[in-house]
Amino acid sequence: MAASGPTPAPINPDSLLSKVLTQLGLILVPTGVIALFCQVLDVSAQVTGIISLGVILVVGVCIYRKFINYYVPSAILTALLIGLAMVFFLNYQHILLKKTGLIKYYAQSNDFLSEIDTHISQSQQEIWFYGVDFNISATQRRDLLLNKLENGIKVRYLIFNPKSTHIADLAKDFDQPENALRSELEKGLNNLLDLRKHWTERAASSAHPGELDIRLFETPPHFRLYVFDPNRPRGSTYFIPYASVVSSTVLPGYLLENVDTGVYKAYFNSIRKSWTTATTLDEYLKSHPEIVIP
Questions:
Q1: Structural domain tally of the chain?
Q2: CATH number at residue 154
Q3: What percent of the chain is predicted at pLDDT more than 90?
Q4: What is the CB neighbour count within 10 angstroms for residue 226?
Q5: Where are the alpha helices (DSSP H) in the chain?
């Protein structure tokens, strides 16, 4: 009877586990460091995830290059292809959109309201609201705005005058009854007065109080704008261009990145000009003593 070959040595589970953990450590430690740097640099969660995935793939290729070389002509070429794919992902928006800053398109402008809390929470310097009125932000987001004000954020509202002589024309543009629009404007102003009242009560006890400023303009607006941190490239702007005889709620909206070469800057510069000529809230209340201040 022929002698059998040597019996294979049994696999040590502890040794296998140690090897697996070592391999995971080699892959995940540099990935974690890169992800940490991304957070420090205020990189978005999506881009951080893509960069982390790319690092995992590149490190994996380096560790298992001998195994990969057995099936693929060059592990280095594979790593380069992964790197090029990452570069394309991080720049494809600028490549395809020619640096317009467009991030996302919404078929109906009100769809953005479900995400506005995130943009308010992420703001670090200032927030601008420009439009006819802002009933939702002044009421449903009141506590969130007050918290941001307590942390030193500047919040500016630029709204349409509820007593303007142009309301009839604006109502036609919005395909809305004049009385309904007037009532909406008055309600919007009252909600902002209530927001200012709550902020006045809380500002005194805030260690680093921000600023709440409200002004009113007369000329019917051509668009609606939410601007979050206009001086930060990682800031964002939500832009809703108006159309004649159509309610703005059914018009599309565009989320933009606040880059200098982008679309947002021209429109933001426009509302800054309007801001300098607009009537301050205190001046407006003096000229309309019939308005009840909460």
A1: 2
A2: 3.30.870.10
A3: 48
A4: 23
A5: 13-40, 45-63, 65-71, 75-97, 116-122, 135-139, 142-150, 167-173, 178-203, 264-277, 281-287
